[in-house]
Amino acid sequence: MLFFTVSHRGHAYSLELPASTTLTALHAQLEELTSVPPSMQKLLWKGKKAANDDTTLQQAGFKDGMKIQMLGSTPDEVSGIKAVEDERAKRDRIMHERTLKPQAKLRSTGSSSSSALQYRFHNVAPLLHLPEPDSAQAMLDKLANDPAILHVMQKHKFSVGLLTELAPHEQPGLLGLNENAGQKIKLRIRTNRYDGFRLYSEIRRVLCHELTHNVWGDHDENFKELNSKLNREVTEFERARATGTHYLTSSADPHGIYQPASELEAQAYVLGGSSQSTPVVGESREAMRRRVLEATMNRLRKEEEELELSCGTGKDVSTSNPDGPSTS
């Protein structure tokens, strides 16, 4: 009798078999233990000798007490990976076909098909070891194909190699991370308990923050100005689409001069317009507008401060605050 251990994906299986047992019989027993079919099993051990399926364990070099490593995937795992790859190939084919068709231009200058192909997210992929990878893929695809996000990417010539997600349990202190100025952007899209996904508007705001890191690494005044500008342009783009506007020039900034107050005021209108505010007795309409605007501006500043704290760009992410999310 031979006593030996077979390890597969962190699990160790202790076996006791006669030395005359064939490798075929061993593979069959390992299939019962791991659900990996014999054709997909690969065994590695010290002193391995050339063998075929009829070779006995003794002839193959098995010895008492030896440790064997097994590699291999189950049919369900293989089919799952193939399904994801097929879906990604289908999506890439559809996106490629769309780029070959004439597109309606939302601006007078328009964006050429070459810029649309260049300034975008070139790859989108979830973390397959996390729950519901298909739902995560759908969320990332929605972000990658968001018309307002693509608008600012083409306008500012942003290109991102890979858009993927952050695992809450692996990097609990981060909401976002930009690696190598756009080579890879990671976003926290899931709730801490993995029971759903965070609000789309919040994730997209983090994405704007991370896109700003394509240009500026530190959270200095240059970064804050561009980040605020991207958020304003997203707001203006969506307002233009909603009203059917084709020329997206800002009435508050007709000459292209950046004005932070205008951006904040635009967001104040969208996020908490005076029509949705409860008036104070005796308060004039103008006073109420100023009060709502000030409250919204304070909220936006606080959100930006929280985003900076939860940003992993330029930080050692291994030392991120474990008690709360951060971004980069």
TrEMBL record:
<dbReference type="InterPro" id="IPR029071">
    <property type="entry name" value="Ubiquitin-like_domsf"/>
</dbReference>
<dbReference type="Pfam" id="PF08325">
    <property type="entry name" value="WLM"/>
</dbReference>
<dbReference type="Pfam" id="PF00240">
    <property type="entry name" value="ubiquitin"/>
</dbReference>
<protein>
    <submittedName>
        <fullName>WLM-domain-containing protein</fullName>
    </submittedName>
</protein>
<dbReference type="InterPro" id="IPR013536">
    <property type="entry name" value="WLM_dom"/>
</dbReference>
<feature type="region of interest" description="Disordered">
    <location>
        <begin position="304"/>
        <end position="328"/>
    </location>
</feature>
<dbReference type="InterPro" id="IPR000626">
    <property type="entry name" value="Ubiquitin-like_dom"/>
</dbReference>
<feature type="domain" description="WLM">
    <location>
        <begin position="112"/>
        <end position="301"/>
    </location>
</feature>
<feature type="domain" description="Ubiquitin-like">
    <location>
        <begin position="1"/>
        <end position="77"/>
    </location>
</feature>
<dbReference type="GO" id="GO:0070628">
    <property type="term" value="F:proteasome binding"/>
</dbReference>
<feature type="compositionally biased region" description="Polar residues">
    <location>
        <begin position="316"/>
        <end position="328"/>
    </location>
</feature>
